[in-house]
Amino acid sequence: QVQLVESGGGLVQAGGSLRLSCTASGGTFSSHNMGWFRQAPGKEREFVAAINWSGSNPVYADSVKGRFTISRDNARNTVTLQMNVLKPEDTAVYYCARDSRPYAGIALTSYLYDVWGQGTQVTVSS
Questions:
Q1: Do 20 and 121 touch, CB atoms closer than 8 A?
Q2: Averaged pLDDT score across all residues of the chain
Q3: pLDDT reported for residue 37
Q4: Which is nearest to 106 in space by CA: 63, 50, 56, 31?
Q5: Are 18 and 67 in contact (CB under 8 A)?
Q6: Which helix (H) or strand (E) holds 121?
Q7: Tens of pLDDT along 42-71?
Q8: Are 56 and 124 in contact, with CB atoms under 8 Å apart?
Q9: Spatial distance between the Cα atoms of 35 and 114, rounded to a whole number of angstroms
Q10: Could you point out which of 33, 57, 117, 119 has its C-alpha 20 to 30 Å from the C-alpha of 5?
Q11: Which residues, in sequence order, are bridge partners of residue 94?
């Protein structure tokens, strides 16, 4: 069974950058799309970005488009979220997740993702 572990969260001032990483172990990674989601206090979990199994066709939420970049390295079983020009409204727990469907089109809905990391806190101060 695949397991996901995120790292790279922290506290940063508005306008700063953070780089989140997610490493997979124990199962199939390279044939599945990967996504990042986030959940702020009192809010529902929301889609942030996703990338397909081959590392192409990244998709972003409108709120992060142009500021965040998702990438993956299948040789190292990692997916990365580079976050630039961070805003206080980006404050949330960020989760990486694996799409349950191999070789599928990218999904924006969380119910299609079957494996989740434990989450990493990102706090952006104003």
A1: no
A2: 96
A3: 98
A4: 50
A5: no
A6: strand 120-125
A7: 999 999 999 999 998 899 999 999 999 999
A8: no
A9: 11
A10: 57
A11: 38, 120
Reported in sequence order, the residue ranges of 18-119 that DSSP labels E, i.e. its strands, are: 18-25, 32-39, 46-51, 59-60, 68-73, 78-83, 92-102, 113-116
Report the distance separating Cα 26 and Cα 74, nearest Å: 14
For the record, the structure tokens of 92 come out as 């949330």
pLDDT digits (tens, 9 = 90+) for 23-41: 999 888 999 999 999 999 9
Which residues lie closer than 8 Å to 6 by C-beta, 6 or more apart?
Answer: 20, 21, 22, 94, 95, 96, 117, 118, 119, 120
CA–chain centroid gap for 105, Å, is 17
13 DSSP β-pair partners = 125
113-116 vs 92-102, strand pairing mode: antiparallel
Structure tokens belonging to residue 78: 């990692």
